[in-house]
Amino acid sequence: MKKTVSESAQLLICPLDQCQLRLNGNSWQCEHKHQYDIARQGYVNLLPVQHKRSKSPGDTKEMVQARRNFLATGAYQAISEQLNQIIIDHKQTNTILDAGCGEGYYLNRLNQKLTENQRIAHCFGLDIAKFAIQAAAKSDKKSHYLVASNRSVPIADSSLDIIYCAFGFPVFEEFTKKLKPDGKLILVESGEQHLIELRKLIYPNLKPYRQNPYPEAAESGFSWTEESSIQYKVTLDKTALANLLLMTPHIHKASAEKKQQLAELEQLELSVDVNFRVLNKDAQNL
Ligand SMILES: C[S@@+](CC[C@H](N)C(=O)[O-])C[C@H]1O[C@@H](n2cnc3c(N)ncnc32)[C@H](O)[C@@H]1O
To answer: Given 48, 106, 171, 240, which is the most exposed site by the fewest CB atoms within 10 A?
Structure first.
């Protein structure tokens, strides 16, 4: 069944000429007749070939499935709850974008929370990986899912109240353009102790933790406002551990010997340590 596309999706713009997209039957079309079909699962692909750097950019099908299985264990549910609370505490939540949403875990849960709180919100999720967006759109019929890149967000300028980016690849210059003058950017990032036990098993030397990983945020006109964090322990069984490894870059960096050692573990207790940073558009951008 095709998804009904509500008026909120009128914020979509053509990735080729930035003109507004209008619904025409089962496609989105701009005034220059660039046309984007709505897929069976309800998402739309707004990543033109000329904007792709590889045939299948972003996470692979295998990584997407591993992330879905891992997140289904509830190991990161507390992260989603804290993110939801931060968003609910903001007055303006009319238009929200999950930039690099993966298979939609956080956006799906956020949408449910907003509904419970009787907040009307138009939620968009984008990811450069088609497999991730297919999975997201299949299980969350309330949000609008787009195959697109954070480098060129196909949503009208100055139209978003909140953009959040969880363990992703923020593009500050682009995000500042898309946010309303009083919009917020929320970064959900690994803290210093995040998965430290796993990292110590894989790497002989750990890289020093960067307190401010994004100096370019200020250059794009963002200022840090609030910061909070969450820390807890989770015990992962063999399957969850294998999925966690598959969904992170660690799998590519671990030696064959280390991978073997990890595969032999029956379970592992891990620290979860995540930071939530809220950034404001600076007054100079108003
Ligand atoms: C570590 S995963 C996090 C996914 C999701 N936010 C989560 O935490 O479950 C990073 C995601 O960013 C996507 N990605 C990579 N480059 C991107 C880009 N330029 N624009 C949008 N998404 C991108 C990947 O496909 C992947 O789904």
So the answer is: 48
**pLDDT for position 8:** 60
Please state which CATH class domain 42-285 belongs to: alpha beta
| DSSP label at residue 22 | E
**263 Cβ contact list (under 8 Å, min separation 6):** 238, 242
The rounded Å distance from CA 129 to ligand 1 centre is 8
- Identify which of 53, 54, 55, 59 to mutate to test ligand 1's pocket (most ligand atoms within 8 A of the CB): 59
Strand 27-29 and strand 95-99: pairing? unpaired
Nearest to 270 by CA among 230, 233, 231: 233
Q: Is 201 exposed, middle or buried (0-12, 13-18, 19+ CB in 10 A)?
A: middle
In this predicted structure, the answer to whether residue 286 has a pLDDT above a threshold of 60 is no
Mean pLDDT of the chain: 91
Residue nearest to atom 24 of ligand 1 (CA): 58
Alpha-carbon separation of residue 72 from 106, 149, 243, 271 (angstroms) = 11, 26, 11, 18
Q: Which residues lie below 8 Å from residue 25, measured CB to CB, with a gap of 6+?
A: none
